[in-house]
Design a protein that fits this description.
Radius of gyration of chain A: 18 Å
Distance between the termini of chain B: 25 Å
CATH class of chain A: Alpha Beta
Strand content of chain A: 25-35%
Number of strands of chain B: 20
Largest sheet of chain A: 6 strands, mixed
Shape of chain A: globular
Strand content of chain B: 15-25%
Largest sheet of chain B: 10 strands, mixed
Helix content of chain B: 40-55%
Oligomer: heterodimer
CATH superfamily of chain A: P-loop containing nucleotide triphosphate hydrolases
Number of helices of chain A: 8
Helix content of chain A: 25-40%
Chain lengths: 240, 779
């Protein structure tokens, strides 16, 4: 049976006008992201990975084509509507974490709950929710530390916990291990796998071929077009 | 506390120095505004007491043979609200130093405070026999304590009185203003001193001051009809102008508004910088669900917290500073401020502006920051804010004659154009304010000196009820007298406002008339007049036109204008200008109301000692003729003028100082922000071998660039602003014409250099002392 999709992209193109020339960044890209999957987007620098990721989260808009989130098209929403949508449905994780430097790990999570106007969690349970996420991501002992007092791996775990604050079904990560050592990168990926088992869908951009190979689905971009769309995990299973 | 509020507080605590600068900026702005308004309010309240028209008489008729019956007739005249009889007598108060002060003694039939011009005993008691109660502002001329004996000389010789108390009279201006003291005795003592046997003044108050002329005529007719004789009159009514006070306070309000403007610019600069710095944080917040209102709310919370602290501190400083400044002013003009009380309006205004202005100033930068798309924000994530300029406008790098660090410093100025614009605007306003203030001080001093040389006398002698020709001969025959001339003055209302009318000798040597057009008097012409340029500008009268004026107690007279002179006396502060006629013409016109003879004297030897000796000689000569003259020397007038202008100059310099302070904090904030923003750049320079000196050169060049640019712009706009400012002083306060001095550009340059040094020393030092390890650890 074909798994149900959470994201469906149809004929996405993106071009920008620069120095009098039209530069094409993405050309006619179509794909589907199944629910509860680990979905890797990979490719060399300048292939359009981050642009594609930004369009999936509503941060950027396609020049043409459509994006459906749970069968609902996200085009036409205002900036504020997209912010609210992300707050509820999408958790975003950056390569450089982008934690609020003046807030502790726990406060960063609480901020996401406050901004997301979390319907799933009543205000009185926010503190408990933040503690659970800190526990889940393995940084409970760091909860009162500022980002500058934590290691890169701990900061990324905090960022993941923050992204999960409003219990979104989709987690999107741009080079989540790009700024971490191999040990920290491994533990972050293990966390992604753990989240997948809990039913989350994780889309991540990576340069790391080995990490991409551990996904359920992989999309390799080259010069703005899909060079390869595979199911490495299935391949691995078949090989086994 | 919500997490957004925690973030707002954390943002404040994270950048402590910048937060401190924001708080100081708001504090200085609020303190300056509040101090000016508190001073304004406190002084105005005190002056309102001394210029209160509610219970003050509007006119005083000097009379002979007036009695209760006369008074009752006057009370029946239409538009007369109240009238009373009084005894007034002018004496000389001889100080232990030998100098003499004119003193007007007032007495009423009863010992209680009168209905009109009521007084309030502030210390001591009402005078008994041989006792006197001094007006408290007399202390500006001669301090005298209760129990002290003072010597007064009248027609019946010298008498010693003991000071029994001090008083302040409602509606009476400070003694410093006209150099004449006021005191009260019992009716018996004033009659003993003067020899008079009945009240010699009828004081009246009008229901409607706009019917001034008609009412004065009616009262004059009634007094004469009752058999009494009018020997003169005086009036405090000017239906066209409320005096110089509103002008002074309008001036202060203009300065407060400029301070506020600079403060708002400073706040906009600070908040724009904060938001610019937090672009990536805004992006991160938007990706986790923040909408525009969340972002705006967060930054307004930050600004609100800073504004609260700055406003509270500013209000405390402003209240204390304002009251201190008010007390300083009262030491110059001696005013009773009354019990300490904080006027609530300036405090409320300061609080509203201190809280609202930063929030309003922050709103637009916050709005624009919050409107930034996530894409625009996240495009900066992971990379340093660049914002570099192209460098095409600055050829130094290619020329290679300027060091790279200095070149970077110059380029920094246009790196953030909006911030640079606000910083330069704030510095330009600071420098332009100083140019305006300095020009005003120079212009006022020049105008006063020009007036002294226009009316080139050393002494002014006034003799009541004298044979004018005889006294003039006596004066002319005294040693050290070069010229002695009679003169006469009056103030008359016209459809163009109040006109100062002066009667001068046609062959005057003391009035150095500066004819602009037409001619001077050919002889003792009776129907010719010369007007000042300011009066011509207001009236549009030309040579050959006629001007008709009327005394409130007499018939109208018409003069033909034969010339126009440059004479800025009485061209401001409520006067429309000067009309000069011959002494013969004016004496014919106002003989019924002016009984005093006045003389201007120019000495051969003009040193203060020689003038003082001449003053004594005049007193002795006229005393031998049983005359009691009032004599003012030019030194006394200069001292009196200096005391008045000291207040104006103090206000101007304090306001300019406050504006300069906001300029210092504006520049310091910009440089501090530049240092914070460019830590990585400093780190790179350090890593490449840059010394502390190289880093200091970078920021010092930027600092110097701001100063030079601001100086050039302030030079361009400062001068027209100064002309407008001096004109404003002329229109509202005192007759003054603009005097240009190149010195003002030097002064503004020194002021800007001082601002640059004070503003730059901290940030430049901090940047040059930054350690590479600290920079790399940053965030």
């Amino acid at each position: 049976m074909q798994p149900e999709s959470i994201i469906h992209a149809e004929h996405l193109t993106k071009s920008i006008h620069s120095n009098g020339l039209d530069v094409s960044i993405l050309c006619d890209i179509s794909f589907t992201v199944p629910q509860s999957s680990l979905f890797a987007i990979t490719g060399p620098s300048g292939s359009g990975k981050t642009t594609l990721l930004n369009m999936l989260t509503g941060i950027d808009r396609p020049t043409s084509g459509k994006i459906f989130f749970a069968n609902t098209e996200i085009r036409g929403k205002s900036e504020d509507a997209l912010s609210r949508w992300r707050g509820k449905h999408v958790g975003v994780v950056f390569q450089f974490f982008q934690l609020i430097p003046t807030l502790t790990a726990k406060e960063n999570i609480l901020l996401a709950l406050e901004l997301g106007k979390s319907g799933a969690f009543p205000r009185r349970s926010w503190s408990q929710r933040a503690d659970e996420l800190l526990e889940l991501t393995g940084i409970a002992e760091q909860k009162n530390k500022l980002p500058s007092q934590m290691s890169g791996g701990q900061q990324q775990r905090t960022a993941i916990a923050r992204a999960l604050a409003n219990d979104p079904p989709l987690l999107v990560a741009d080079e989540p291990t790009g700024n971490l050592d191999s040990h920290a990168a491994e533990s972050i990926f293990a966390l992604f796998q753990q989240l997948q088992l809990r039913g989350k869908t994780i889309i991540y951009v990576t340069h790391d071929h080995a990490l991409a190979q551990r996904s359920n689905y992989m999309l390799r971009l080259l010069d703005g077009a899909i060079a390869e769309a595979t199911e490495p995990a299935m391949e691995g299973a078949n090989e086994q | 506390m919500s997490v957004l509020m925690k973030k707002a507080w954390a943002d404040i605590m994270r950048r402590k120095i910048r937060s401190l600068l924001v708080v100081l900026g708001i504090m200085i702005g609020v303190a300056g505004l509040t101090a000016i308004n508190i001073t304004n309010s406190v002084i105005y309240s005190a002056l309102q007491y001394s210029s209160n028209e509610a219970a003050a008489s509007n006119a005083e008729f000097r009379v002979i043979s007036a009695n209760e019956q006369t008074l009752n007739s006057v009370k029946q005249v239409a538009n007369i609200k109240a009238a009373q009889l009084a005894y007034t007598y002018n004496v000389k108060w001889t100080l232990p130093s030998g100098s003499i002060i004119p003193l007007q003694i007032i007495a009423y039939a009863t010992d209680s405070s009168p209905q009109l011009n009521p007084y309030q005993i502030t210390s001591g008691t009402f005078p008994g026999s041989n006792q006197i109660m001094l007006e408290s502002s007399d202390a500006t001329l001669a301090p005298a304590n209760i129990g002290e004996k003072i010597t007064l000389s009248g027609a019946n010789g010298s008498v010693q009185f003991t000071v029994s108390g001090l008083t302040r009279t409602l509606g009476l201006g400070s003694a410093a203003i006209d150099g004449s003291a006021t005191a009260y005795t019992s009716a018996a003592d004033i009659m003993m001193l003067s020899g008079m046997t009945a009240p010699n003044e009828i004081e009246v108050q009008f229901t409607n001051v706009q019917n001034y002329t008609q009412t004065m005529r009616s009262v004059s007719q009634i007094i004469r009809a009752s058999g009494a004789v009018i020997t003169g009159y005086s009036s405090s009514v000017n239906p066209y102008d409320a005096g110089p006070l509103p002008g002074l306070f309008n001036l202060m309000r203009v300065l407060a508004a400029i301070t506020l403007l600079v403060t708002i610019g400073l706040i906009i600069s600070m908040i724009s910088t904060l938001i610019q710095e937090q672009k990536t944080i805004i992006g991160a917040m938007k990706t986790i669900g923040a909408v525009k209102t969340d972002i705006i709310r967060g930054y307004l919370a930050t600004v609100g917290l800073l504004a609260m602290v700055g406003t509270v501190l500013g209000l405390i400083l402003g209240i204390a500073g304002g009251y201190e400044f008010a007390q300083f002013i009262t030491t110059l003009i001696i005013l009773d401020l009354g019990p300490f009380q904080i006027p609530w309006q300036p405090v409320l205004l300061g609080a509203i502006i201190g809280l609202a202005a930063p929030l309003a100033a922050a709103f637009f930068p916050a709005w624009f920051g919050a409107s930034m798309t996530v894409k625009a924000a996240v495009s900066q994530i992971g990379s340093e804010i660049s914002g570099a300029v192209s460098g095409k406008w600055w050829p130094a790098q290619s020329v290679g004659k300027v060091s790279q660090t200095a070149s970077m410093g110059v380029q920094s100025i246009l790196r953030r154009k909006g911030r640079a614009l606000l910083t330069i605007a704030s510095l330009v306003i600071s420098a332009a304010a100083f140019i305006a203030v300095e020009s005003s001080v120079i212009s006022v001093n020049a105008s006063v000196n020009a007036l002294y040389s226009l009316y080139n006398y050393d002494l002014v002698v006034t003799v009541p009820s004298a044979n004018t020709a005889g006294v003039l001969t006596s004066l002319q025959n005294l040693p050290n007298v070069r010229y002695a001339e009679t003169y006469n003055t009056d103030s008359l209302y016209s459809k163009w406002g109040l006109i100062s009318v002066r009667g001068l000798q046609f062959d005057t040597h003391i009035y150095n008339y500066q004819l602009v057009s037409g001619r001077w008097f050919n002889g003792p012409e009776l129907h010719s007049a010369i007007i000042s340029e300011s009066l011509q500008a207001k009236s549009h009268l030309r040579i050959g036109d006629s001007i008709t004026l009327a005394l409130p107690t007499g018939d109208p007279q018409t003069w033909t204008i034969v010339g126009v002179v440059h004479d800025i006396s009485s061209s401001g502060g409520g006067y429309s200008g000067v009309m000069i006629t011959t002494i013969q013409s004016l004496q014919l016109f106002n003989a019924s109301s002016v009984s005093d003879s006045s003389f201007m004297i120019q000495a051969v030897h003009r040193s203060p000692a020689a003038i003082s000796a001449l003053q004594s000689a005049i007193t002795q000569t006229l005393a031998s003729q049983k005359l009691s003259p009032t004599i003012f020397t030019i030194q006394q007038e200069k001292q009196r003028d200096a005391a008045q202008f000291q207040i104006l100059f103090a206000i101007l310099y304090v306001s300019a100082g406050i504006i300069a302070f906001t300029g210092i904090f504006g520049l310091a904030n910009t440089l501090t922000t530049e240092v914070l923003e460019r830590r990585r750049e400093i780190g790179v320079l350090r890593a490449m071998g840059g010394s502390s000196r190289d880093i200091a050169v970078l920021f010092l060049t930027e600092n110097t660039g701001y100063i030079l640019l601001s100086w050039l712009i302030s030079g361009l706009i400062g001068l027209p602003l100064a002309i407008v400012f001096v004109q404003f002083i002329n229109d509202t306060l005192v007759g003054v014409s603009f005097t240009f001095s190149p010195l003002i550009f030097l002064v503004s340059f020194i002021v800007l250099i001082a601002i640059g040094v004070f503003a730059g020393i901290g940030p430049v030092f901090a940047a040059s002392r930054m350690r590479l390890a600290d920079i790399l650890r940053y965030e």
